Amino acid sequence: GAVGSEGGQRILWNLVEMVRSIVLCLALLPAVAALVQQSYPASISISPPRAAPLRLRGGLCDIDPNLVAKGALGISGLNGALMSLAPAKCGEMYGVEGVTPFSEWLIESHGNLFITLALLAFLTVTGKTSLTHAFGWCTVPIIIGHVKTLLNDTPKKLGFDAGGQYFNLFLNCALCYSMFNFETATCINVMKGWAVWLTIMGVWLAVSAETCAKAWGCHSLAEMDLVLLNNMGFYLLGGAVHIFFLAQGESAAKAFGYSIAPFALNLVNNQFISKTNQKFGVTLGSQLFWLAYFIAVAAGTLM
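Structure (tokenized):
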């Protein structure tokens, strides 16, 4: 009876924490969006690659989906900056245990990816530049990350092959160049091709992180390293979804909303299905916050 009572109290407490996280997230989104709006008051939609005008749709309770997206990408961008600039401190904040030097490098790489996706969302939602130029600019954080890794001789220090870093650096530089120099129609096809590439890599990492890691020259990784690589697979899938819908002519806010799905799926799996988070000490509160964030973004941009 006592065990059952404790279990019931734990479930009730988790529900309370989730409700608090949802309220906090909903409160933060307009605040962050307001800050962005003060600097960039315009909310002009980028011309889609198709001639037909996009249908205008409101968010939940007629909330402007662009406003929701601005607030959400602000939070995501700040999180990415923290991960990129202070990966060890970020791990401590989330309560992660068993972080290795390779894990810290992966957390930094995750941060660069989050900054990239936030930058893509920001430029497309605010309409400050064309879709193809926005995509070109969003490759810069990834390029900087690869250059930093190679200049600091990180592959040698952490014991993995540098070839993959040179390959990805070349791909991203070529991608950036094409977005600023090729015809729009060609760039849209390149974006779709990049979405396919991210999908292939994302699925590979999500299904078999260790096999994918070995193919890229990373051997003898710790369990925590493999978990982070598995997470990266879902993040790449989120990027693929985002890019694909933008290339298809979907509105910037809705494309951002659709991209949330792989991130949410990864969180639900780690927290409630595989329970990987509990194994490595990830705090429940942080995961409930991000779950609330995903729910708020989906409701505000898609419904």
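The mean pLDDT is 87. The first helix runs from residue 2 to 39.
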